[in-house]
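Input record (Table S2, row 560):
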Amino acid sequence: MKMSKMLMLTMKEVPAEAEIASHQLMLRAGLMRKMVSGVYNYMPLGLQVLKKVENVVREEMNNAGAQEILASAMIPAELWQQSGRWDAYGAEMIRFKDRNDRDFCLGPTHEEVFTDLVRSEIKSYKQLPINLYQIQTKYRDERRPRFGVMRSREFVMKDAYSFDKDQEGLDLSYNKMHDAYVNIFKRCGIDAKAVEADSGAIGGSNSAEFMVQSEVGEDDVVFCDSCNYAANIEKAQAVAEECAKEELKELKEIETPNARTIEDLVKFFNTTEKKFAKTLIFNADGKIVAVMVRGDREVNETKVANALGGVNSLEMASAEEVLKATNAAVGFAGPINIKVDTLLVDAEVTKMYNFIVGANKTGYHFENVNYDRDFKGTVGDFRNVTSGETCPKCGGKVTISRGTEVGHIFKLGTKYSEAMDAKFIAEDGTKKPFIMGCYGIGVTRTLASIIEQHHDDNGIVWPLQVAPYQVSVIAVNSKDEEQMRIAEEIYNKLTDMGVEALLDDRKERAGVKFKDADLMGIPMRVTVGKKIVDGQVEFKLRNCEDIEVINIDDVYNKVN
Ligand code: ATP
Ligand code: MG
Ligand code: MG
Ligand code: MG
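Output record (magnesium ion complex):
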């Protein structure tokens, strides 16, 4: 591509609306332009990269035996009514009516469409397994579009759907997709880790999200420091809750509540539903002097009351009364020593709730105690999963960090095939629902994640595999005919070799050309300047400071 002819939209200024590096650079390097919130138009350079990422995805999907199709983005409501999701999907779905008043949506995902397709076309187990995919534009009216194409309202997704005759088949299909995803993200140069995800009603380890660790990620991911356990926060919470339920069973066997130890109480509070924040306050001797619970009081006060041996409905108490009562209960005369433990409750949030406060003794509790009014100090909040907690797999310590979900693989089972009556004739002649899996990759989000992981102060640093162009050939002095001629010759020869090259033949200063090549992230740069009198040019890699002076003929070996 000759840059004098190209729609070049690089800009020096950092656009005010862009908060994160990838968003800023996609605008600055001229990859895209915003049309309206969460909706972008791809410019030549952006489209070039998008195609590269799509092709990596396509090649690996094809290698894994999946077949590409292209479904329509316009989907009739009937399909969604059959699966029960027309009402369930909510405001994220973009809906409209055709001229005959028939309901449609712009597809946010395509389980229904693919299930419908397969139910009409596939009749027998002999035609299974099959995995169909598409790379297509999806529409979701996100509550909060942000960070450019990281969370946009229109985005490109690769979505695949597998259909098997039995569970073993699904396991195989799922594992194939898992491996394909590992290859895809590796080839894109991003470090994405498969983490266990909560698969809701279906249960089991049937869903994994591919997460890129990133400060700008919108998800919390739990990693074990000692083993390879990794899960998204929802899954980790669910596992923690399961464990807690087991412990609760044991706790119930303790008969005299007042005999409980601090550990028993901590365990108990971890078993109550996680929407309730639980706070225990200890005195200097490590005894519980106060328990604070917020949330759904009706359910919870009873639970707390039972845990503590029964609460009489007491009047609202002042801080002093609380102190007196709790101190009396534990026989401790001094001021309450509030011990800080693990994650801190945000004081602002705490202020909004009323608590039950009391000692580990029957009758010494107050309702409706307000943190700010009746209590001050730092409080510890026992959440189910926090950094430093125990790994459910190996007992090591876990760390929570932020992550971006770039892909998601999911064993659906018969959820959609049952609901939509999608059946095949099995080996024994009976009709059975397809056993399904679905597998998504956010292609445009992946593109942004690549930039997030590969950039420096001067701009993007594309990994070679997805670079829009591999080489940029720059004539230092555009008024020098010889330089221009040689630059063009190199460019032509590279192009003939099948190398995707840019020729910067613009009437610009060399500095501007270098800056743009860096901003656009082109991996290799060939600079044609004064050294051509000795038959030489300069060669530089984007991710390396060194400049090599080489013979013109060596350019072609270097680049290959
Ligand atoms: P998120 O949790 O980020 O909202 P999701 O779980 O709703 O994503 P899926 O339904 O699993 O998304 O879709 C498959 C993939 O599509 C996601 O893993 C993500 O990479 C991508 N994706 C989802 N929503 C968006 C969006 N609004 N903008 C860009 N990519 C998206
Ligand atoms: Mg979402
Ligand atoms: Mg998600
Ligand atoms: Mg998801």
